[in-house]
Amino acid sequence: MKCLHPAHWPRPKGYSNGVVANGRTIFVSGMIGCDAQGKMVSRDFVGQVRQILRNIVEVLSEANAKPENVVRMNWYVLDKKEYVDSYRQLGIVYREIFGGHYPAMTAVEVSSLIEDAARVEIEVTAVIPD
Questions:
Q1: What dotted CATH number matches 23-129?
Q2: pLDDT band, residue 64 (cuts 50/70/90)
Q3: Phi, psi (degrees; rounded to nearest 5) at 115
Q4: Is the torsion defined by CA of 84, 90, 95, 97 positive or negative?
Q5: N- or C-end of the chain: fewer Cβ atoms within 10 A?
Q6: By the 8 A CB rule, do 57 and 91 touch?
Q7: What is the DSSP letter of 62?
């Protein structure tokens, strides 16, 4: 996997502009902040993200993949302000679970999510190198 950063662009913070990778592809559906029993672990945005990232790691492990294999991450948030105001805390939680690996990311504000208690949903694509 190689991160793509045009030399004349500013260095992104917390994501990559692009990623190129060869190998077996893993698609992880949108995850919300529920535990293994399907119970929402927190009403708090950052608490939900922590659980979501843990869930993603657990799903990836089923294919012997790790966070560093993630090439694409899409965030669907209910409140852009809540997301932006949480940057610092999100960075801490993200590094705690995903380390210093920053895939290509997109974040969009949506009007609702299927699960009423969810504040955020995250989906990822990972590639296990050949």
A1: 3.30.1330.40
A2: very high
A3: -85, 115
A4: negative
A5: C
A6: no
A7: T
* Element housing 26 (H / E): strand 23-31
CA distances from 53 to 40, 63, 82, 90, 120 (A): 14, 16, 18, 11, 11
Q: Is the pLDDT of residue 85 over 90?
A: yes
Domain ranges of the chain: 23-129
Rounded (10°) angle between helices 45-61 and 87-98: 20
Q: Give me the percent of the chain exceeding a pLDDT of 90.
A: 82
Taking alpha carbons only, the member of 109, 7, 96, 8 closest to residue 52 is: 96
Nearest Cα to Cα of residue 109 among 84, 85, 77: 77
With tokens 């662009």, the residue in question is 9
